Amino acid sequence: MRPQISERYLPEKDSQACGLFGVMNTAGERFGGEMAINAMANMKVRGNGLGGGFAIYGLYPEFRDYYALHIMFERHQPGAKEMVDEFLADHFHVVYDEVIPTNKKATVLNPPVVWRYFVSPRRHPEEGNNLSDDEFVVEKVMHINTRIDGAYVFSSGKDMGVFKGVGFPEEIADYFMLDRLYKGYIWTAHSRFPTNTPGWWGGAHPFSILDWTVVHNGELSSYGTNRRYLEMFGYYCTLYTDTEVMAYAVDLLMRRQGLPIEVVSGIFAAPMWDIIEHMEPERRELYKTLRMSYAPLLMNGPFTVIVAHHNEMFGLTDRIRLRPITAAAAGDFVFLSSEEASIRAVAPRLDLAWTPPGGEPVVARLHTKDYLASLTRAV
Amino acid sequence: MFSHLLPEFLVERRSDRCIKCRVCERQCPNGVHHYDTELDLMFSDESPCVGCQRCVVFCPTNALSVYPHPTTYRPNASWTREKLQDLKKQAETGGVILTGSGNDKPYRIYWDHLVLNASQVTNPSIDPLREPMELRTYLGRKPDTLEVEVCGDRVSITSRLSPNVPVETPILFSAMSYGAISYQAFVSLAMAAKEFGTLFNTGEGGLPREMREKFGQNAVVQCASGRFGVDPEYLNSAAVVEIKIGQGAKPGIGGHLPGEKVAANIALTRMIPEGTDALSPAPQHDIYSIEDLSMLIYALKEATNYEKPVSVKIAAVHNVAAIASGIVRAGADIVAIDGLRGGTGAAPKAIRDNVGIPIELALAAVDRRLREEGIRHKCSIIAASGIRCSADVVKAIALGADAVYIGSAALVAMGCTLCQKCYTGKCAWGICTQDPYLSRRLNPEIASQRLVNLLRGWSHEIKEMLGGMGINAIESLRGNREHLRGVGLEGWELDVLGVKGAGE
Amino acid sequence: MAVSCARYGLREMFLGGVRSLEELRSRLSIEGQEAEIDARDLVHKEINDLIREAALSGARRITLLNVCGQRYIGTRLFLPQQDGKIEIHVYSTPGNDLGAFLAGHRIVVHGNAQDGVGNTMDDGEIVVHGRAGDIVAMAMRGGRIFIRDSVGYRAAIHMKEYTGKVPVLVIGGTAQDFFGEYMAGGIVILLGLNLKPGERHHAHYIGTGMHGGVIYLRGEVAPYQLGREVGVLELDDKDRRLLHRYVGEFARHFNLNAESILDDRFVKLMPVSKRPYGRVYAY
């Protein structure tokens, strides 16, 4: 439990807008960062240079059985790394760790040191075996994020990682040399236009829990309702962003409760009652029950979100499509983006380009053509 | 339906003074007064009286008095007369209750809890009657640094500068559209702005073509959600282009100019068919987020060849500081903030009286936030809502404004009495009406003179106050909270305002 | 988290690094009234600088090559002192707000367009050989827009007309929700050419808040897909003449057979009131 704090002293919620991009090779082949980076550069005007980031899947095949922790340490808190190292040694087997290499010539302001650790859980006898490995990792990550000043975990999934910071996305990519050093079969990217004051690298996106990452554009008017509901299930927001709420809701419904996105989209972006009235009886019952049961998780207000985890990437917009999304396909590649032009900038020859209606997910899954399902009502 | 409503005003006629000249009958657009020829008597039906005092002012013998009707329900602190009357009105109509002007509820007016400073001994006060005292203000984005080329004794500027617009006094007329107000009132504001060297604001109703050449350079033209009257010539004729996101009287909602007010010339100016409702959507449908706002800002800069500052006007709402920061980062040159007491020609009363935050707090929060982020110089701030006198202007500037918008004050100068019935279109003073019989009561020559007088009087008072502080240029007051102290405020309020308590 | 960010100041994503006309001159070639601009990697202001330069140098037909996502193409062409309208050919993917505030010129897109095509357009013509995104023809008040394929949300939102200036929007495919929302004037034609036999248009809330203008719809819609403010009418002769004219133009732009399109049944959607909200308020 989090100590009781008066609502008065909680930080102001960060509101923001941005550009999103995601690309997946549904055959599972790994590819470099050029597409994601150049697509974001094409949409430069959607961000304001105060945040950019990337999530990559299939990143560390040589360590695929270990949780890969990307942890940032602020330079003005020199003790943080020591504390984290001690904490990790206590709770994990660390099989390998190193500083994430960076481009010394890159122009970014105030970068922290970012380190990666490949770990497996080390349980103390008194902790018992009640927690799954995943829950164990989530708990320890929360501990680092909330208890160790100057340290923050960017990502903690297996065979994936998040790179992010303050700057335009292409600057962040240049800093971490993403185009030269890494390959993956899913890349998602985010360019931020916060209306709040970041300047803190941990506040950039993607936001991640385990191997789930979320990039999000928009502002949830229902934030307070969503947040308070999620708190009942043990999710305490520390960043006060809509993205965080979205990520926790995805974690609750999809990872913990096991609902597929095709159902979850009916919760986040529930159809209007008068549309539900006109559905076939079985669908009507489903959507009515979803709305009734999960009303506090209706994500009200403009949003587009691209969520990824292993084997799956999906995009979803709010129910009246107040934020843009374009999907496209070329061979084994599936793209999701805020703008069609940014896809064409990196993949001039597309087989298909389409825009689904609000609330209808575009789901790319490994070795399937599930994304075609979103074509039926698309334009 | 038989109405249960009580009359709002009582009309009292002193028969010993009444000469039955019937001026009151002609002046009242609500049919309160009438003359009975058979009885040779003047009668009054007070139920439609709105308390605008037109008849009182025009009665040649001072025979009339109009005051709040003494008839009352049993007094009840919770169920006030106003609440009861509203309930009955809605029971009779099933409608949304409309009102006009600004929020009249007793929220704290922070201007009245701030006091100004003056020089005593340690530095001299200045006499503005005989010494220079400068109010000129440049509105627009300022550079981080100026790049210059020194060539012998010639220095030339090499940086590319953003467009800036000067005003001779930091007082601008708020957005009031042609359609909401009469053509005469609209022209009066334009004439006064031109004569005094300041700006008026077209609101979202367009700028009549015949006014563009003469008054364009004193116009802030709005591009609002309805896009009424927005064409490339309109944008290019202006001094400043303003994107209207919201308005203090009705944050978050749109507006309807009812079709019966959309007469030929208004239809032409708004560029819509005659007689149709002019619906202003709640949002601008090309702006659903901050990056969309930046898209429209730059669309307008493109449409005006980067020659005009672009202003963004928002209502002061809970997270106004963060929003303002986003607006500046999105490329706006001016941020206009309209607070809780901002006026309107028509707004649902539920919205007007309950949504938004006071301008004083909003202004201080925005100014502080922009400074913390190092971007305060990237925009000018215009504060609006409930600026009633020159001291309010001075306090607003000390809290961080570059200039203020005045709406209600300007209307009062022209004749308005804040009867709050603007939405009926029956303004007896000829301001908020499209009825030619009523609007021709307002003579633009005279009304603009009243406005110029007001600006002159206020400007002079501002100079006196500045002089007292030992300041002879308005820019030295901007954000200068050392010249403010709070009286009767709580700690959190002083914190938000960024001022010390008196004596601290 | 309390990090001072004053040092970050303001990043210029729109105008940062914009090159001067002199630096970009090689991108522009003008021969008589023809001009060509290589837009590869130019930002929107640079393109519009070059277009304006070309227009002021007398070019009347400007071809833009390698356009990919740049916004506001054609917006900076309010040139009252200049005679003659300009025709711009865009290859291939213009960015948002294509032809926003367009002052009477003609733009042809050889590819798909994004959001905001013809936003608050005053006059002129836009032809898109592909699809378009959301809010096509928003607040448009004059001129014509022809979209070969489908359009996104809120097309024709708040379109208006006045004193004989009547905007026209013709869409070959279908549209998404809130089609014709708030319409106050103008003529909108939705052809549904890409719908399968028996397939209804997908949009909901068609014509919600509509209080002027007319929508002609080819293809089926269920009554619940329509906004409360619209009525469905059969066509009269005047309607048929109108359709004949604009569908004919549409067909000529895209090499289609107008007659076979016009053979199918159309319905007309009109607002039931010029004052849909007259009774909402208590006076």
Give an overview in words.
The complex is a heterotrimer of chains A (379), B (504) and C (283). Chain A has 379 residues and is α+β, with helices and mostly antiparallel strands. Chain A is built from eleven helices and 16 strands. In chain A, the strands form three sheets. In chain A, strands 7-2-8-1-14-13-15 form a seven-stranded antiparallel β-sheet, covered by helices on one side. A five-stranded antiparallel β-sheet of chain A has the order 9-10-11-12-16, covered by helices on one side. In chain A, helix 1 crosses helix 11 and helix 6 crosses helix 7. Helices cover 30% and strands 18% of the residues of chain B. Chain B contains 16 helices and 23 strands. The longest helix of chain B is centred in the last third of the chain and has 26 residues, at 444-469. Chain C is of the alpha/beta class. Chain C has one domain: Pectate Lyase C-like, CATH 2.160.20.60. Helices cover 14% and strands 25% of the residues of chain C. A twelve-stranded mixed β-sheet of chain C has the order 1-2-3-4-5-6-7-8-9-10-12-11, sandwiched between helices. In chain C, a hairpin with a 2-residue loop joins strand 1 (28-31) and strand 2. Chain C is globular. Mean pLDDT of chain C is 94; it is low at 1-6. Chains in contact: A-B, A-C, B-C. Chains B and C meet through helix 3, strand 5, helix 6, helix 7 and helix 8 of B and helix 2 and strand 13 of C.
In short:
By secondary structure, chain A is of the alpha+beta class. Chain A has helices spanning 34-42, 79-91, 133-147, 169-176, 178-181, 223-231, 242-256, 261-268, 273-276, 281-293, 340-346, and strands at 16-25, 52-57, 67-73, 92-99, 113-121, 151-155, 160-165, 186-194, 207-209, 212-218, 303-309, 312-317, 326-330, 333-337, 352-354, 362-365. In chain A, strands 7-2-8-1-14-13-15 form a seven-stranded antiparallel β-sheet, with helices on one face. A five-stranded antiparallel β-sheet of chain A has the order 9-10-11-12-16, covered by helices on one side.
